[in-house]
């Protein structure tokens, strides 16, 4: 099926240049045939898919727009960040975390783990290569993945990868979401997205407005307070705040276990009952809960509950202030929907991220979609690939 499995790709521009009909743009760039799937993204999902293919002897190429693996973790996370879930739920296939790592590894430990994972499975992404478009060519029955590679002082080079399959592993957090607030351009103070926030040290003694009350907003507010700032957090909509652990057991693990034995609505009611015992009534602090339970909300709308790691006690005591939605900004101030005007020095936008896949993935119909695999389906993808070729060897090392 794959021909020479020892070779991941072949430069086919020169091989077929004279055979292409006049006017065709199939080889308008430097064209590379990939003897297996193209994986877009070298984060945890992309690495996991690559390792699975590697173990089965399936060639592949990983394209990564940044200059490192797990660029979100390396470049767009704050220093105090730790995994919000126990490490056993975050480890990648066939390679557990080191025993000496704590139950909730720091971001630096997680990055170390991912780099070790890539080294263990000899995964070498093509860095600084941004996918411009990926389109299924029905004439040839192949994917055409067009990229621009940043080659530093040598400038940039355009490539086109030709392959039968594409794996989308870019995650849900590829691009920052920056709302268009009236008057923000006239604010005059420091405005930063949470993706660029590292530490609260520079904000000591300042009045900081944190826009957003998800996990990032909560943790950034806590970090600001711990560094001597005066944070106010904008809560615009209902949010589920849960304890990270319930009676010594991970809330996430508890939820997953309960869903095996009871319907989601009952698991939700149980978790919320226990959360109220531990956290009290969060509504009276301005953190109203949605009508839908946290597990059902995650399943239906993809909204993740907040796992409290210390911000809620500061909210109760008034050290982190909760404020409602924003009407507009002015010079050194913000007007809120309840009529209050707050004087502030800085704004941190904990307003989340979005996927950038719709901007470059051109899925025209069902024919093209069945040749495209998103990382959440990577296990099924691996089995599909293996079912077509029984000769792959399973001889790559794993950590025992």
From TrEMBL:
Pfam families to which the protein is assigned, alphabetical: FMO-like
Top-level division of the source organism's lineage: Eukaryota
Annotated keywords: Auxin biosynthesis, FAD, Flavoprotein, Monooxygenase, NADP, Oxidoreductase
Reactions performed catalytically: indole-3-pyruvate + NADPH + O2 + H(+) = (indol-3-yl)acetate + CO2 + NADP(+) + H2O
This protein's name: Flavin-containing monooxygenase
Pathway assigned to this chain's UniProt record: Plant hormone metabolism; auxin biosynthesis
Family: Belongs to the FMO family.
Segment forming the signal sequence: none
Name of the top EC class for this enzyme: oxidoreductase
Organism: Arabidopsis thaliana x Arabidopsis arenosa
EC number of this enzyme: 1.-.-.-
GO BP annotation list: auxin biosynthetic process
Cofactor: FAD
GO molecular function, one term: flavin adenine dinucleotide binding
């Amino acid at each position: 099926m794959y021909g020479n499995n020892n070779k991941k790709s072949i430069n086919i521009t020169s091989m077929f240049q004279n055979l292409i009909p006049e006017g065709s743009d199939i080889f308008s760039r430097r064209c590379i045939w990939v003897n297996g799937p193209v994986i877009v993204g070298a984060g945890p999902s992309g690495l996991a898919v690559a390792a699975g293919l590697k173990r089965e002897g399936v060639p592949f190429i990983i394209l990564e727009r940044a200059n490192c693996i797990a660029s979100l973790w390396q470049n767009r996370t704050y220093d105090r960040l730790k995994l919000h879930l126990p490490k056993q739920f975050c480890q990648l296939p066939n390679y557990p975390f080191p025993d000496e790592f704590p139950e909730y590894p720091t971001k630096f430990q997680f990055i170390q783990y991912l780099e070790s994972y890539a080294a263990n499975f000899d995964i070498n992404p093509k860095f600084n290569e941004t996918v411009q478009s990926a389109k299924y060519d029905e004439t040839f029955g192949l994917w055409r993945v067009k990229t621009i590679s940043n080659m530093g002082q040598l400038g940039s080079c355009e490539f086109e990868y030709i392959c039968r399959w594409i794996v989308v592993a870019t995650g849900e957090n590829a691009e920052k979401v920056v709302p268009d607030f009236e008057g923000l351009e006239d604010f005059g103070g420091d405005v930063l997205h949470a993706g660029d926030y590292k530490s609260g040290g520079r904000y000591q003694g300042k009045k900081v407005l944190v826009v957003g009350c998800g996990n990032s907003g909560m943790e950034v507010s806590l970090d600001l307070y711990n560094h001597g700032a005066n944070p106010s957090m904008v809560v615009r909509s209902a949010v589920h705040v849960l304890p990270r652990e319930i009676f010594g057991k991970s809330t996430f693990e508890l939820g997953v276990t309960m869903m095996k034995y009871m319907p989601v609505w009952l698991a939700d009611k149980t978790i919320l009952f226990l959360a109220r015992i531990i956290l009290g009534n969060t509504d009276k602090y301005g953190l109203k809960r949605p009508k839908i339970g946290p597990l059902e909300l995650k399943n239906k709308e993809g909204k993740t509950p907040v796992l409290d790691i210390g911000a809620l006690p500061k909210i109760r005591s008034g050290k982190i202030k909760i404020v409602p939605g924003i009407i507009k900004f002015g010079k050194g101030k913000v007007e809120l929907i309840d009529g209050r005007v707050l004087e502030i020095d800085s704004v941190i936008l904990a307003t989340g991220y979005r996927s950038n896949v719709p901007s470059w993935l051109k899925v025209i119909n069902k024919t093209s979609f069945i040749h495209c695999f998103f990382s959440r389906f990577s296990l099924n993808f691996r089995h599909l690939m293996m079912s077509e070729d029984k000769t792959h060897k399973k001889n790559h090392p794993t950590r025992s």
